[in-house]
Amino acid sequence: MEQMDSSPALAIHNLRKVYGNKAAVDGLDLEVPRGCFFGFLGPNGAGKTTTIRMLMGLAPPTSGTIELLGLSMPEHALEVKGKIGLVPDESLLFDHLSGLEFTEFVGRMYGLARPVARERSRELLALFELDGEPGKLIGDYSKGMRKRVAMAAALIHRPELFLLDEPFEGVDAVGARLMKEILLDQVRRGATMFLTSHVLEVVERLCDRVAIIHDGKLVKLGTMAELRTGSETLEDVFVRVVGGHPAETLDWL
Fold it and tell me: Dihedral of CA 225/226/232/235: which sign?
């Protein structure tokens, strides 16, 4: 058991995913220690979502290995999925259920007894301030509310590892602050966060360690202090590493 606990929360080695003649992920090596808030960054098309989909078991790798919580994928996929909380980029929710019904359903899918799933659902919706209109269907939720209920559902079985793909997209400042506080509290309790986000200021405030990928390859990895030079922000580092160019000016604009 001790060996299991000392293993990384996430370890991928020489991971590749090829579509046709294009490698969306190209020989990725990455280890994420347990209890870490880890930022996984890259420009559009860099391979972030493809990597997340492979971690979730939604897309099989072309080659390479994945271990989550010390267990190899896909051999131990069922056991691993019971220990992971997912907040996917797309809102994979059931529009014809209320937030309470959906969260309870997810709890039941993870094997919680019905009374436990119902009680935790009520408590989570109150925590995420979604209990004001308990009968409201998810199809009538705003994008920010959908993200919040997705995160509530991800928490219901008390997972050890969270895979968060753009969790703050479309969420207002009050909702984002609430979500961030809940996630940080989970890290303090020993959980691990694996976060993709285009909002670099959020990553800078939340994450202990950051990886930047470009064209499917790892180009930078380290703590915030290790990545930055002088007074650089994370945005400065990101633009420098992925080769951003100054915007051209238009005479008429």
Answer: negative
Tell me the average pLDDT of the chain: 88
Predicted local confidence at residue 2, as pLDDT: 39
CA distance 125 to 152: 7
pTM above 0.90, yes or no: no
Render 84-145 in DSSP notation, one character per residue. Answer: EEEE-SS----TTSBHHHHHHHHHHHTT--HHHHHHHHHHHHHHTT--SSTT-BGGGS-HHH
d(CA 176, CA 159): 20
C-alpha dist (Å) from residue 65 to 39, 55, 156, 164 = 20, 10, 28, 21
How far apart, in whole angstroms, are the C-alpha atoms of residue 53 and residue 41?
15
| Helix, strand, or coil (residue 225) | helix
Q: Is 1 helix (H, G, I), strand (E, B) or coil?
A: coil
CA–CA separation, 103 and 108 (whole Å): 9
Can you say how many angstroms the Cα of residue 115 is from the centroid of all Cα atoms in its chain? 28
Q: Which residue has the higher pLDDT, 253 or 144?
A: 144
